[in-house]
Specification:
alpha/beta, 5-stranded parallel beta sheet, Rossmann fold, 10 helices, Arc Repressor Mutant, subunit A
Length: 217
């Protein structure tokens, strides 16, 4: 039997080890390589030519959505599954728009992760039942469901900047991580303030920290 080759992108060694153990325990799958950040992931994917990439949303430096956008030009048909602790109502549709074939929460049972992997390898898209219903509802009514949080208005890049602010990074540090100019990061911050209806950077930092604490629960 030819085994499906899975490439893991995860910067937490314990989580990565658990994923590898789960996949290697299956007769039809194997881990062909791993990386802890987007730079190593891109070169690793080029080298190992996997059948599927499983990537954490939160990585060192850039995030999983940016990694998707880096992989897509060279490997347009390579399926990617996003694994994350973050609320799927905020990230799942963003991930699909970026080119992912599925999104699953880390809190899901291991059996569900295997179901997601096999469905995606079979050419399907995987979302939880709850998120699938949300997507179908938005298609049926021709408009997105009501926003649960102003953060849902953010562009992918604004959300990434907001998350790094919540982690305590300065604008210069964020610019270096995302390979942007400080001026561009400042522009993103200005847009975020407008969407949150706040006036200053201190309040922006406070809101980002509170949001990140809630998102990581």
């Amino acid at each position: 039997m030819t085994k499906a080759k899975i490439f893991l992108v995860e910067d937490h060694p314990i989580t990565r080890g658990g994923l590898a153990q789960l996949i290697e325990s299956q007769a039809d799958m194997e881990v062909c390589g791993w990386a802890e950040d987007a730079v190593l992931a891109v070169s690793g994917v080029d080298r190992t030519e996997p059948d599927l990439v499983i990537t954490d949303l939160s990585l060192k430096g850039t995030d999983g959505l940016d990694l998707l956008k880096q992989i897509r030009p060279k490997h347009p048909s390579l399926p990617v599954l996003i694994l994350s602790m973050h609320d799927e109502s905020l990230y799942a549709q963003r991930a699909l728009r970026a080119g992912a074939r599925g999104y699953i929460m880390k809190a899901e049972a291991p059996e569900n992760l295997l179901i997601a992997v096999r469905r995606i390898l079979g050419g399907e898209v995987y979302l939880s039942e709850k998120e699938s219903a949300r997507v179908l509802s938005s298609l049926a009514y021709g408009s997105p469901p009501p926003l649960k949080s102003p953060v849902e208005q953010f562009s992918d890049r604004e959300l990434e900047v907001f998350r790094w602010i919540g982690r305590g990074s300065s604008l210069r540090e964020i610019a270096e991580r995302l390979q942007l100019s400080v001026k561009t990061v400042q522009t993103h911050c200005s847009h975020i303030k407008t969407k949150l209806n706040i006036k200053n950077s201190r309040e922006l930092a406070r809101r980002a920290i509170l949001w990140l604490e809630q998102a990581d629960r």
